[in-house]
Amino acid sequence: MTTVTQAGLLSAKLQETVRVLRAKGVGTPKVGIILGTGLGGLLKEVRQTATIPYPELPHMPRSTAPTHRGELVYGTIGGAGVAIMDGRFHVYEGYTAREVAYPVWVLKALGVETLLISNVAGGLNPEFRLGDLMVVTDHINLQGTSPLVGPNDDTVGLRFPDMIEPYNAKLADLALSVGREHKLPMRRGVYVGVLGPQLETKAEYTWLRSMGADAVGMSTVPEVIAAVHCGLKVLTVSLVSDLCIPETLKPANIEEIIAVANRAEPLLTTLFTQVIQRL
Questions:
Q1: What digits encode the pLDDT tens for the residues 48-62?
Q2: Superfamily of 3-277 according to CATH
Q3: Is the pLDDT of residue 5 over 60?
Q4: Are residues 102 and 205 in contact, defined by beta-carbon separation less than 8 angstroms?
Q5: What's the pTM?
């Protein structure tokens, strides 16, 4: 296989995936959404037109993380066309960063212009509380990889995308305004993406906080890099599902983390539905 063929391989795969999605009734949504752990309640607000399991889509990985159903849901929220990835992928599952980010390029190929991302994260900022919603203003990539490693397909995005503003400032301001209006527990801060799947040590939490990170998680960064690569506007909101304060650290429990996410789910649903209606 020549280098030129390798560079065009991504767009060829995307065409195959999109062809199947179109055949299954997916139109041209303007908003794409990637849902994090325990945050599937937004689906209740969708007037669904099509639901396609990932195994039916060529080149789409399979979700293995807890609560991730692994479906693309197409429909409308408040009259706006949306495509929702109900289930994301992580590097810790054994996927490459490019595989993790593949759904983002699919959303762009479908016609999406704005990408909303949710995740659950550990709060590093001592002022944060369980259930807070943190609008991400920037990130630190400690996953040791990027979805852009390897040949670049120039028809999809730039070889060297600038990361000066990966998270759209206007979207962040809109989310914070909606949060104040609805009296949601809003924060803003920097997200640090780590590899996982193990949680961090006390020393690592101390180090991450000293770097300027307000929340830590194992997702999101590859998707955001891919979104910047292909020209999508991004809003990311982290749900603070556990507190990672070294001085008061307690053992984490995945069931408790999911429970916190479930309790805060209506808050995120309110935030995202209102943002979508005001785009």
A1: 899 999 999 999 998
A2: Nucleoside phosphorylase domain (3.40.50.1580)
A3: no
A4: no
A5: 0.94
